[in-house]
Amino acid sequence: PGGPRYTNRLINEKSPYLLQHAHNPVDWYPWGQEAFDKAKKENKLIFLSVGYSTCHWCHVMEEESFKNKEIGEIMSKNFVCIKVDREERPDVDKVYMTFVQATSGGGGWPMSVWLTPDLKPFAGGTYFPPDDRVYRVGFRTLLLRIAEQWNQNKDALLENSQKIMEALQIQARIRGQAQESPPPSEEVMALCFQQLSKSYDEEYGGFSEFPKFPTPVNLNFLFTYWALHRSTPEGARALQMALHTLRMMACGGIHDHIGQGFHRYSTDQQWHVPHFEKMLYDQGQLVTAYTRAFQISGDEFFADVAGDILLYVSRDLSDQAGGFYSAEDADSYPTAASAEKREGAFCVWTAEEIRALLPDPVEGAAEGTTLGDVFMHHYGVKEDGNVSPEKDPHGELRGKNVLMSRSSPERTAARFGLPRGRLGALLHRGRHQSLAPRPLPEPVPVACAGLMISGFAQAGAVLAKEEYVRRAARAAAFLQRHLFDAASGRLLRSCYRGEDNAVEQGAVPIQGFLEDYVFVIQALFDLYEASLDQGWLEWALQLQHTQDKLFWDPKGFAYFFSEAGDPSLLLRLKDDQDGAEPSANSVTVMNLLRAACYSGHMEWVEKAGQILAAFSERLLKIPIALPEMARASAAFHHTLKQVVICGDPQGEDTKDLLRCVHSVFCPNKV
């Protein structure tokens, strides 16, 4: 009595996402041999569901379908049901997402895929509603239809899955030839710039209508393009596109004006109504982008936004042992007494709530003006809410406001007859008084931590904030202590917060993937350049050797995402797209060039060229898919500038020289 009615074997897992499903009335298995053996022994199809713990639509599908007793019975009777946390097993996620994207033209999470007993996919999609709707088949109907197909047309289904697999293997092949040269960097850079320029939103910034993602890879490309063409009209446009996008995002609702940090993406063109989860990998990359914007423009606005992100990460996504949590959930409780979570509840406001929180009169303004009045005007708060119904399909935001800087500080100050300096202090006070307790974030995978360490290290160097560099070093020490096996020289994928906040591993620790190595190596180079502590440089070079041994493709060149030798993985893939995060091969090109400069191992330069050659066709046709690699191709062709500073590391004159170097945006240097 009082306990859960159902418990399945996911109760024995460490992943927060798998544990969320441990009390579903579904006979869930984790990805592993026990599930595969059952499918073969009973000749049953597999239903594979992939998601992650902070994903809003994953929560919706669980509430609607996986907690439904009748649907749970259909699933358990007809299928071996497997749950995968994509934060733990990105390799499994990538294989089946390749299939879903190729067959449905789209992808996302939750990902729902049906497999034959030998793990070959034949049907799939993302979120399905529980029952049939006007334009969508329901999950219940799909389960019954697929089970019937398996019983009546097994041979045709198996033959179809084999054909699909063969097509995917051809599609996923990325190879270079032994003597092939990298594509000409000028051509690649020029075409990438043209393609970004064509897709650019002149009014609101960004590179699509909606949904709109921050995509820092595009902004970093534009900064590098400007640095190489700064005296040309194209260079000026590249800089304008990047700075305008960053400014519009910071003013928009995708930026949490009260709790700090950035949400994952905007559902509209204006950056107004976000999808409310916050990912660590976005914070890490956006800190770097805003820091570079300040470095180039000298505008304190960008430095303030970078500081805002780092404040959020330090407060809400930092573990006391020094690590980082991976994300903050999209869904939260509207009040301390609420029993049910809602999307974005912590981040939206009614006009009434703002008035109650900010009742103080404002000196110097018209009589009767309160801090709430000034705050509501500046952030576009309306009495009946500022979210349009089409951006609120579930009606969860009715009457609510997503804060957005609708007015410039000058206009708001003029409206209330206030000096501009006074307005800044008032808005700061209003934000501080509105800050609610934050939801508990989830434990971190190491890949995300690499990007965040880079963010802290680069911001510390450019903004001359030693505390940021110290925070980066603390996080790197956490990785070395908890996510690195010194005996084998290998990284582990993730760790978890156990009882009494102890750091724990799963029963069978998951080995690191290519992206883990790549982002950590990049972070260690950034941390070395910010701190000049040689230990970080030595560890980076050691990890680069390990990465070469585990993931390099000696026949087709470039690096595979996962190690060889896992029979449950039908494809060894090489990422060919820079998306929300840059692809591992893109970042590796720059890592290899830096490693060669520091160590003198020139075979790493050769490897960088072979990666560019392997992706040559894509870089020459659609470089907009690989802006980070396009940027790295420029570094490969121009060679890196080496800056050497001689002097006492603690001497003020040495520090002055370092500050001078860090104050200038020079993308291709060590």
TrEMBL record:
GO biological processes: carbohydrate metabolic process
Transmembrane segments: none
UniProt xrefs under SUPFAM superfamilies: Six-hairpin glycosidases, Thioredoxin-like
PANTHER family in alphabetical order: SPERMATOGENESIS-ASSOCIATED PROTEIN 20
Spermatogenesis-associated protein 20-like TRX domain segment(s): 7-169
Classification via InterPro entries: 6-hairpin_glycosidase_sf, 6hp_glycosidase-like_sf, Ssp411, Ssp411-like_TRX, Thioredoxin-like_sf
Protein's recorded name: Spermatogenesis-associated protein 20
